[in-house]
Protein 1
Amino acid sequence: FHCGRPWSPYGPTVALQDCPDHSGNGVGAVAENFFTTGTPFGSHSNGGWPTFDGWPRPESLTHEGTYWRWIERAWRGGLRIMVNDLVENRALCEIYPLTPETHDCNEMNSVRTQARDMYGLQDYIDAQFKGPGKGFFRIVRTPQEARAVINQGKLAVVLGVEVSEVLDCGRGTTNGPTCNEPSIEAQLDELHGLGVRSLFPVHKFDNGLGGTHFDSGGTGLLVNTGNKYATGEWWDTEDCAVGAETDNTPTNLTTGAPEVIQQIAEVPETYFDDYPAYGNGPVCNPKGLTDLGRFLINELADRGMIIETDHFSVKARDEALAILEGRGYGGLITSHSWGDDSSQRRLQALGGVVSPYAEMSTDYVETWETARALAPGGALPGIGYGTDTNGLGAQASARPGAATDNPVVYPYRTFDGGTVMQQQVSGSRTYDVNRDGAAHYGLFPDWVEDLRLIAGPEIVDDMANGAEAYLQMWAAAQP
């Protein structure tokens, strides 16, 4: 499903290989075609290393976007703290027709494997920098360790978890939640031992902890299919209270849609016979936090872990914030714009961090302005950006007209004046943010420069304080 990886001991020729089903003109790449165009039927150039004429690109969701050299360029461009979420989706893994039969789709097993891989990446980068501890990429476990790493001019990496059945807490299809309080405590202890310090209690599906925020569009239909597979139910909706925030409206079934989904999800023809009619919205998810969800929120706070509030249903997020407000706990973040203004205001009042989705630069400016407006007293301590790279989220496309209207001019100096940034070159491909957008993670310094050009020094000042805001939030949350 995902093509390529952030590193290989054999270099980019192995790390940046395309998936076998993408060979030729990409006709067999049903998932890539679906997420890019809304239909599994299509073609595209599959050229990766060394020409990169097919990928990575902002709208390509199944190709690697965080090769370690690209992370290195982001660090050289000023990035000082990065949250790396360990991700998986059991349902979509099991129903995807090209998943190898021997592949383990259990989300927590995948999290364990990915955590080990992250330490392997750290060791690999150390080797490129001539010895243990000498590389720029440092996985950190405390805010004090993160600050020390940053003071050395290196990149502090926080491990997080973003899966739909976190801690093996599925909703279950017959017998209720697939976890209990002792299993939650045991798995939290295990994750903490692996270095995980940030966690999403809810992701794409309703689970044993709470309700989800829903997806819309073509992706929403696929994710709802996964929700039924994982829970035995399609998403349920209800009318929202007058004047209240709303969840996304699930996709209504249209003629031919089941046949499209069946190209990328092995489900029977009768699967969609009981699909709900959702109407045009707005709607809300009636599912809030479960008793186990409330237990988890308190356990995370007791451990000083960072709670990711995105992907909660409006009801679940409101209930989680009420618990945290009662405790005065501010170790929380909205990391990629899956919240709402009301909850963001409450989050910021608690001392939580805002990290809007790294959209096209003009769109990000709007979310930055909103964060400033919602901050207590209008004082924003700093802001981050959430890329969702490799997470089925499109990257920032080029600003329309950027090539001729106030373009980023290469070479340029970073916002702190410390580094001269040339155009990024991968293999035989030379990238230009004015044309290519943030096609891969290494182009985000250029995206920040574009933000400076269109919004002035204030936005860059707030972003430059983003790492400090995160460290202060994390430190204040420690027990």
Note: The first strand starts at residue 81 and ends at 88.
Protein 2
Amino acid sequence: MRRLCLISILLAGALFAWEFVPADGFWLSAKWLPEGEILLTGTNYRGLFIHREGEQLDTISLDWKAGYRSALSDDGLVAFTGYEEFDLPGCVRVFDTRTGGTWDLHCGRNIGPPSFSTTGDIVFSNSDEIFIYAPDGRQLIRHTGGAYIVLPVEDGGFFFCDRGGIAYHYTPMDDSPVALKLPGEIRFTFAPEVSRDGRHVVFEDIGGSVFMFNPYEHEIIDLGKGDRPVFVEEPFGVIMLQLEDDGEEITEGRIVFVRIENGEVVSVMSILENLWGHIITNIDYSPLYGLLMTTLDGRIIAVRDLGEVFK
């Protein structure tokens, strides 16, 4: 059993309290849910769980890959793609955190992770088509053009990347998706995330920089070396990890905030260094609940009050 641990740390030049979330297990990632509960991903992405009060854990799914890029809606729905085994067909499923109900949207092979659009619909793809479903299970649209990770953007189109790491932008006026003209140094598009308003997409080049894409202007800006980017809406910018390694393993990790104005980086602030030897490997942020961090040794740390960090 893990006990609550409340310690003060130096965060952006000020002292803040951090705590271990008392959830037994080895966790790959954690996300805030709308009511302040925590969505946890189990080892090897097998299993999704909700951490509520104290040490209570509720199981959403034990499916393989269920925890890989699960999507959250503002009204408490969790969408995920689950497989009973890696070589069997899988299903896109929806879990309602308010009622505890689960239902299937679509089943088949090669289904990638789902995303929620700004209108609350669910978007996903297989190797041949892009699908849009209403959360209640009604199929709304299907487009020819397979992808792996698909993110709906505010112009009614999609940002997506295939299994070869090539990124595309598709709009309703396009006959077919158009490959983005990415900077020449980008080798593989990885870990894309879309802002809440659908107007920006941030993504990594594996082992390199983090980039932000504006689908309206088709502009791409370099945010510097980083991993696991997460949007901050006010003030606008991106929180991301900066990890160091010795060629074999991660040796150091910090969190920085990249502030962006008018499509340009205006400042980069280091807001958190290693926590008493715990190397950070994944992050999530909520303006209501603070920073949520996963460590290399599979623990979850929360900094619930960030004070003036983003003022």
Note: Residues 292 and 302 are 5 Å apart (CA to CA).
Protein 3
Amino acid sequence: LAVGTGSGFIDIWDMRFQLCIQGIQHPTGARVISLLRHQDQPSSLISSFQGNNEVAIWNIDKPTIRQKVFWPSPATPLSLTQSLNHYIAAMYLWKNDGSTSLLCAGTDMR
């Protein structure tokens, strides 16, 4: 079970033993808005965060490094000081003809 928090943590729980087995923290502590499991990569989580429309792919085996970051904001890429209020509110991952696509809907209405 993966849970996102308002203080920028993604906690991975083993429900058999009711233990938190892994913790991931966003570099700025940005609030986690949405979480999605990657269909083709079981150890990957896709997450969206408050501010800058940021979407990140994390490898839960190497939680300190984001595998990939999507940053459609006009703010400086991966800026820790600049932040816009827009965020991705919902995500949907699907496969079509062998390729995987990520559909995002955000508060900027684009």
Note: The radius of gyration is 14 Å.
Protein 4
Amino acid sequence: MAYLKASDTSIDFPLYHTENRSLKKALLGQVSSRFGVDKKSRPVVQALRDVSFSLKTGDRLGLVGSNGSGKTTLLRTLSGIYQPTAGTLSMEGKLISLLDPQQGMNMELTGYENIRLRSYYLGLSKSESQMFEEDVVGFTELNEFLDIPVRNYSSGMIVRLAFGMATAFSPEILLMDEWILAGDAAFMSKAKKRVEGMVQHADILVLASHSPSILAEWTNRLIWLDGGRIVADGPAMEVFEAYLPSQDFQQLLKTRS
């Protein structure tokens, strides 16, 4: 049975004294109240602080909070991109994160070569690799463009290939940021149906979103983050009533139940 657990998980980002450090520029001004120092007295931004929760099969968790509250940082920590500064993470089950589908793509390789490279990284058998390739080829509809290097693709074509590879398998644990469903209307309509299938088949979902309709449709529990800390954690309707009082949202949740 799949599970995902965070215990007092904290993330600190170091602040460098060099003025052109991109991380420092990105963080200064919007998280000044979260400055601190690490064990060696070096300045850090406290991106997440003492985050704890436990998820089991059937849980559909939504993450809400203003920009900079820690939603994406938490997703990246759960996916293994960031390592906790303190606390622990534990999980059981195959995990896929739809945060940056283009991660791991090689622009110098052809579309077909990228597909085969991804199947190798996934550790697929020969028969699984063949099914993986057929699925991605059919979904992307890139046809003859799969024979040329990805560096020659348009941005939309790159998104198609990356998204197709990232969503070819339904995981037990699915991590997702809602921006993944933004883009070319024709393609994203098709992409949304594919993601909806993944959501339905996943044992556990963790979704960061600002959309009441998506949260109402896909989640049964919400965590409200503010300043990198959990403000509230509970049933979706109760938490959203506290986070953003909205009769429209409450009615939407009631119609779903």
Note: Residues 136 and 165 are 6 Å apart (CA to CA).
